[in-house]
Amino acid sequence: MVAGPVERRLEEVLADEQARWVAIDADLGAPLEALRRFVLGSGKRLRPAFCHWAYVGAGGSATPHDEPADRARDDRADNPPTIVDVGAAFELLHAFALIHDDVMDGSGTRRRAPTVHIEFEGVHTDGSWRGEPRRFGEGVAILVGDLACVYADRLLVGAPPPARRIWNELKIELNVGQYLDVLGTARAGTDVTTARRIARYKSGKYTVERPLHLGAALAGRGEELASTLSAYGDPLGEAFQLRDDILGSFGDSERTGKPVGDDLREGKPTPLLAEATARVHDPVGRALLARVGAPDLDDDEVVALQELLTNCGARPEIERSIATLTERAIDAMQAAPLGEDARQALVTMAHYVAERQH
Q1: Distance between CA atoms of 110 and 97, rounded to whole angstroms?
Q2: Is 65 helix (H, G, I), strand (E, B) or coil?
Q3: Taking the model in full, what pTM does it have?
Q4: Is 109 helix (H, G, I), strand (E, B) or coil?
């Protein structure tokens, strides 16, 4: 119900932009095509769904609709965005975050395909061009991510001021959380409180809570429903990121689209790792934990770390936290002053977020 219209809107926006810029210079097709493939290739469309159901629950139209192709709303500040536009904007903002995140982490794959910077590093190598292939690939990926952010902003042109304020704040929160993540990785941070703060700002708030706030604001009830939606969105956003942490250390690469144990190889300062550090005190276990983030961490060590995270109780503790946070979110939603269809949809989404395998 939500994904289809959003994907059609994304296809329309990106196809129009690709045609516009290729007409000026054929070389501009490559970065725009990379963005199109990245955005449309796969994705759970969670952020548009949370935004949609908050909008519907607050009294907005329950039937998303596609934008007429000749509306040209991107350039008109007096033409407010539809809920479909906003959903497409969330997907573009998510692409911006992921593409940049892959550069910062040096990730080689995303969704079972080479990351954008690796793709363009290969283009440079294949062309025997001047300069360093790595720098070229990373530079192009940063620009592709920037384009995604600009297009996301353009889809919000004409949004009411309360919605714009939420949109701007969530972008700041996303960047603040990403900085804390980069800093924590460099410092090999293992503090549980800090790890949970990173999870909240880097991913949780902009995945669940802020899309809910924005949906309600578009329906004219943002201020009225903010605390109610936060009572659901804040714990569920944390549960979402905690599940991501589990998948980042234990997930099946065929489902996640990333190497097994990717967070362990990158040394991510996750609550899972912080819990393990607080629990493991024997020299062998401490030495193994010290290998997290090592450039030469091998598959056998990843398996040993997975066993340690489970046996020391860290993984079970995070699973208990996910269950507790999800139950808190569902209880808050059951009492929320929203339409019944929206409440039930958001309860169903809470279960999906907590239990997903990719």
Answers
A1: 13
A2: coil
A3: 0.92
A4: strand
DSSP classification of residue 336? S
Alpha-carbon gap, residue 50 to 90, rounded angstroms:
10
Return the bridge partners of 109, or none: 114
φ/ψ of residue 42, rounded to 5: -170, 180
| Secondary structure element (H or E) that encloses residue 113, with its range | strand 113-114
What Å distances lie between residue 244 and 153, 290, 306, 313, CA to CA? 27, 22, 15, 18
Q: From its phi and psi, is residue 110 left (phi > 0), alpha (psi between -120 and 50) or beta? A: beta
Tokens of 116: 């954008």
* Nearest Cα to Cα of residue 318 among 230, 229, 248: 248
CA angle, 97 as apex, 40 and 181 as ends, to 5°? 145
Q: Is 237 exposed, middle or buried (0-12, 13-18, 19+ CB in 10 A)?
A: buried
Torsion of CA 43, 185, 208, 140, to 10 degrees: -40
Tokens read off for 283: 């020299």
Q: Which of 245, 249, 243 is nearest to 349 (CA)?
A: 243
Average pLDDT of each block of 10 consecutive residues along the chain (358 residues)? Answer: 93 97 98 97 91 97 55 58 96 97 91 93 97 97 98 97 97 94 86 88 92 97 97 96 92 69 88 94 95 92 96 97 97 96 97 91
CA of residue 314 relative to chain centroid, distance: 24
Distance CA(173)–CA(241), nearest Å, equals: 15
Give 194's contacts (C-beta < 8 A, 6+ positions apart): 180, 184, 269, 274
Cβ-count burial 165-176 (b if 16+ within 10 Å, e if not): ebbeebbebbee
